[in-house]
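ingest -> validate -> predict -> emit
validate: passed (alphabet ok, no gaps, 168 aa)
predict: started
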Amino acid sequence: MTKPSVITFDPATACGCAVGPIGGKPDLRSIKLDRHGDRPIDVFGQAASLVHGLIAEHDPVLIAVEEPFYKNGESRYETTVLLHGLYGAITGAARCRNITVWSVAVSTWRAKALGTSKFGSRNNAKKAMMTLCAQLGWPAVDDNAADAGGIWMWATAKYAPFGVLPVA
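emit:
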C-alpha cells in the first residue's frame, strides 16, 4: 500500500513547500512566486497554479498552511496583504480540488517540531529549524523550505499519530 502524501506551505514570495508520504521523508523546496515586480494578484495566481500542479502530481490527503499573522507596529501593509492573499490562494486552490486543508500558527508547529516556540527571535527559530532539517537528512535550500519541513512534521504527526493512518 502506498502511503498517502501531505503537502505543506510556508507562504511567502519565496514560498516554502514540503511534499512527502506520511512516515517518509519530505522533499523540501523554496519556490519563487514573485518574478521581480509582479503585482500581488499575479503572485496569488502563481501560488494557485503551484498548488494545482502539486495536487495533480502527488494526490495529497492533506495540505497544511502556516496562518498569516499581523504584528502590531512591525508589519507593513504591503506584506500583510501579500501574506493573507497567498494564504487565500493556497487554501482556496486546495479546497477547489476538495483537499482537506489545515491551517497552523507558527507557534504551534514550532512547538511540535522543535519542542518549543520560544527562541528569542525569528532568526534564532529559523536557524534551529535549518539545523533540525540537516540533522534529519532533509536538505533545505533556505529557511522557507526548512519551515515547510516543520509544518510537515506537525501535520503528519497530527494526521497519523505514531505513523498509524486513520481508518475510514
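The domain at 5-163 is CATH 3.30.420.10 (Nucleotidyltransferase; domain 5).
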